[in-house]
Amino acid sequence: MENTIVNKVAQSSIVTLNLEDFLPKEPIKMFDLKDFLFMGLILKEKDYRAALETYNWAAYENKNVAITCSADAIVPMWAYMLAAQYLQPIANSIAFGNEEEIKNELLVNSIHSINAEEYLDKRVVVKGCGEHPISTKAYVAITTKLKPVVKSIMYGEPCSTVPIYKKGKV
């Protein structure tokens, strides 16, 4: 009898889900309010409004935009809202925060838009390691999205997994 190596993982019905596949493909464009501060410290409403009206918004067209203020200044809430209202008709998405926070928000939004029925009664391994960091929030989102429909959820790699959920077991 021949000694052949059989890849049981490849023959199994396990579906590997890599959350990196759901990361936004396009870079995040930052809109930093520090560029509109008087002396790098103060936001003057009249000047700010005038600057936004004449600002060239073309760089943000069809982009995912993160609104932030990188200066150590007290910025009123309405200033972020005003920037968002200018960005809203041209940007793909707009959120407050730094680049990593926005990437994470977009990742979780992508997870929420998954058609969970595609995983009906399947055994799913959510890949644990990769090139890009994936937030805990994303792992929680994929678990809550898939649990109602899958047969099981595991974490890790198909050859070495940690069981998370199995239908019929508590």
Can you give a write-up of this model?
The chain is of the alpha/beta class. 29% of the residues lie in helices and 21% in strands. The protein has helices at 8-11, 45-54, 77-87, 99-112, 136-146; strands spanning 14-17, 28-32, 64-68, 93-96, 123-127, 152-157, 160-166. The strands form 2 sheets. It has a 4-stranded mixed β-sheet. Strands 2-3-4 form a 3-stranded parallel β-sheet, sandwiched between helices. The longest helix is centred in the middle third of the chain and has 14 residues, at 99-112. The chain is elongated, with a radius of gyration of 22 Å.
How do you describe this structure in short?
It is built from 5 helices and 7 strands, in the order αββαβαβαβαββ. The chain has 170 residues and is α/β, with parallel strands linked by helices.
Which structural traits does this protein have?
170 residues, alpha/beta, 2 domains, four-stranded mixed β-sheet, three-stranded parallel β-sheet, 29% helix, elongated
Q: Percent helix among the residues?
A: 25-40%
- Termini separation (Å)? 43 Å
* Percent in strands: 15-25%
Q: Give the SSE order as H and E letters.
A: HEEHEHEHEHEE
Radius of gyration: 22 Å
| Side-by-side strand order of the widest sheet | 1-5-6-7
Shape: elongated
The profile of the biggest β sheet is:
4 strands, mixed
Number of helices: 5
**Ranges with pLDDT <50 over ≥5 residues?**
6-11
| Number of discrete domains | 2
Round the mean pLDDT to the nearest integer and report it: 90
Q: Helix/strand/pairing class, anyone?
A: alpha/beta
Number of strands: 7
